[in-house]
Amino acid sequence: MYFIKTTNVLVVLLLKSVLSDQAESIVFNISKDQTIALAGLYQSLALVQNIAWKGNTDHSCMVPTIESILKLDVNEFIDVYGSTNNLQLGIQTLKTALQNKSEKHAVERTRYAINLMYLASKLAINPNAISSLGTQIERISNQYNSVAESFDDITQDLGGLYREYISPLGPKIIIEGDPVYLKTDQNASKIRALLLAGIRAIILWKQANGKRWTLLLGRKSLLDNILALEQRI
After folding, report:
1. What is the DSSP string of 132-177?
2. pLDDT at site 48
3. Residue 11 pLDDT
4. With the C-alpha atoms ordered 43, 44, 47, 48, is the resulting torsion angle positive or negative?
5. Each residue of 140-174: b (16+ CB within 10 Å) or e?
6. Which of 99, 77, 68 is nearest to 226 (CA)?
7. What is the C-alpha separation between 46 and 91, in angstroms, rounded?
8. Buried/exposed code over 21-36 (b: 16+ C-beta within 10 A; e: otherwise)
9. pLDDT computed for residue 3 by the predictor
10. Cα separation of 157 and 90, whole Å?
């Protein structure tokens, strides 16, 4: 497992303001696999916000996102999510962020991403936690026949793994939302499970050789990849 540090959001905005799209594409190229991983991260966080603010737990991308945690041995990065269709929410959310469109919860989502990357960095230097977490994920994968059929039980188990192995690694992520939805145990478990899916996406991104400076300077390359992915939906 690997981790990449994030930089201050203000630095990102400053660099974007002084670099042309042409310069970005020449200097840094972001691969399709890196884009898939980033879309996976953004999808996890968008689903967290859907639960926190709307109580929506039945989005079509929910099950594939939870399944991504359990798929530890795949041939292609997209296989982690099953298909491009299963990443459509993440692709759209990432595209909106890159296009600097005004979106109500964008800053909130960025904070979650930065915090998850920090926690992933702590996990990466803790081999005992990595080994134990992997063993428990494999156990859960073998215990159930289908995520869709046992969704509540699986998200409860995975949420428990996040609380046991990830939460102690650093400051807890404070989720914003409507208290009506946040206070239920089932929603809390689903949110933790989705945060674990975000950790999975970050690890995928680094395994695809994701680099900090490509995130800062590769905006055009990312958008080109997103367009290609959208054409497959």
Report:
1. HHHHHHHHHHHH-S-TTTTHHHHHHHHHHHIIIIIGGGSSPP---S
2. 98
3. 39
4. negative
5. beeeeeebeeebeebbbbbbbbbbebbeebeeebe
6. 99
7. 11
8. eeebbeebbbbbbbbb
9. 32
10. 24
Taking alpha carbons only, the member of 211, 197, 8 closest to residue 120 is 197
Token pair belonging to 195? 């945060």
158 neighbors 139 (Cβ within 8 angstroms):
no
How far apart are the C-alpha atoms of 167 and 133, rounded to whole Å?
13
Which structure tokens are listed for 104?
A: 């109500």
User: Is CATH 1.10.3890.10 what the domain over 9-230 is classified as, yes or no?
Assistant: yes
Structure confidence at residue 15 (pLDDT): 40
Instruction: Tally the C-alpha atoms within 13 A of residue 197's C-alpha that lie toward its C-beta.
Output: 33
Q: What is the pLDDT of residues 199-214, one digit of tens each?
A: 999 999 999 998 767 6
The residue ranges of every structural domain in the chain are 9-230
What residues in the chain have per-residue pLDDT under 70? Answer: 1-28, 101, 212, 214
pTM over 0.85: yes
pLDDT of residue 171: 92
Round to whole Å and give the CA distance between 149 and 173: 29
Length of the chain measured in residues: 233
